[in-house]
Amino acid sequence: MTSTLQEQIKQFYDASSSLWEQIWGEHMHHGYYGVDGKEKKERRQAQIDLIEELLKWSNVQQAKNILDVGCGIGGSSLYLAQKFNARVTGITLSPVQASRATARAAEANLSAKANFQVADAQNMPFADDSFDLVWSLESGEHMPDKTKFMQECYRVLKPGGTLIMVTWCHRPTDNQPLTAAERKHLEDIYRVYCLPYVISLPEYVAIAHSLSLKNIRSADWSCAVAPFWNVVIDSAFNWDAILGLIRSGWGTIQAALSLGLMRRGYESGLIRFGLLCGSK
To answer: Nearest CA to 126 among 146, 147, 152?
Structure first.
């Protein structure tokens, strides 16, 4: 990962994570609103439901040693540690996130089960065959080399272990290349959210096959999660959020002002919520 992009991502999450936790809580990912996206539910419950639906979809019923790639402030990590009574290691580029996740583990009496550190997902500091579950929930979009990222996830996965990856994608382009307007829309999203680029779900599946992953499955859950952005936009219009944005700085303000980019991306079918799982 280039040092410039790393620094941009670090600064973005260093600045914005405390505000997100204040407004939304510990889960820094989409919520699940039913297959058709029409279920009404409390926003944080929707985020927990996404975790549970992913586990159900991937048929993961137990895990002993888990890697959470792009762990945020430990939302998924601590949830999985408790659910499976497992050891969880979380990595992030943000020292602020790693520190807060460590503090949250202590608050939950999970310090013995959960460890958080600053590390590059494209060059992980772990031995081969270390984890029986590699969990990447909305971090792949930040990776400048998608193949290298998936190679690293595969490398640290134990034989028989499972990779679950969920990431922002653009629509498949087999039948129609991206238009100039679509490319401009994506470039605006990249700039705001510190993304190098995104690819389509079929492209991720092709990478997975090149790694010799077994039992590869993929799914598009765009309809199920699309309402999330309307809820995020609604939550931004209160004084606590506005004051928090001001304190967090221009990068966070710009991201908040650009929430509509993601909503419109889902509405047009350009942005897709891609799932992939496989075993080693």
So the answer is: 152
Cα 197 from Cα 276, distance rounded (Å): 18
CA 19 to the chain's CA centroid: 17
Alpha-carbon gap, residue 10 to 142, rounded angstroms = 11
Helix (H) or strand (E) holding 278: strand 271-279
- CA-to-CA distance for 170 and 182, rounded, in angstroms? 9
Instruction: Tell me what percent of the residues of the chain surpass a pLDDT of 90.
Output: 80
The model carries a pTM of 0.92
Residue 259 has a pLDDT of 75
Domain containing 165 — which CATH number?
3.40.50.150
Q: Residue 1: is its pLDDT beyond 60? A: no
Place of tokens 């040092």: 3
Report pLDDT for 171. Answer: 98
Mean pLDDT of the chain: 92
CA distance 173 to 238: 39
- DSSP run (H or E) holding 5: helix 3-24
Range(s) of the domain holding residue 210: 3-279
Of residues 201 and 243, which shows the higher confidence score? 201
> For the chain, how many structural domains are there in total?
1
Token digits of residue 55: 């586990």
Given the structure tokens 């928090």, which residue do they identify? 244
